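Folded chain entry
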Amino acid sequence: MSSDFEGYEQDFAVLTAEITSKIARVPRLPPDEKKQMVANVEKQLEEAKELLEQMDLEVREIPPQSRGMYSNRMRSYKQEMGKLETDFKRSRIAYSDEVRNELLGDDGNSSENQRAHLLDNTERLERSSRRLEAGYQIAVETEQIGQEMLENLSHDREKIQRARERLRETDANLGKSSRILTGMLRSSGGWEIQDQRAGRSAV
């Protein structure tokens, strides 16, 4: 039973190697050869799927205690098959684009020009967006600086007003002190005159 599986396994390895080589050649072939190669790969992919089905049936026939190793190999082969189908799908999409361009009389230059034009417009929009964003940022920063300057001026004005009030208070206090000192000096002078008069009277 395992010998049948290994035989299918060898056939699958050879077939998938051929498919991989052909898929890689598709983009470099002339249109007529590409069409034939695509059809050939489609046929070989179907053959590979049939081999996988046969291998899967063989694994089911293997006793459970020995089936694990073969099951792991089957998972690997199925993943490889999925990758081949994905690669072939991509090559078919590229092939379909070329066929469409040929039917429309387009050698592909116009689509390339369109893509280049779109990319150029996108880059211009991105540059304009960056300039607008930079201008907006400068405006915001300028507004913030102006607001800070107004706040600083307001604080300075308050400080000046408080300083003027303190000066007025100081002037008022100095005036009061001057009047008090003047009164004290006058009082002191009056007492000295009275003392001098008292001394003359005693003599």
Remarks:
- The chain is about 95% helix and 0% strand.
- The mean pLDDT is 77.
- The two ends are 161 Å apart (CA to CA).
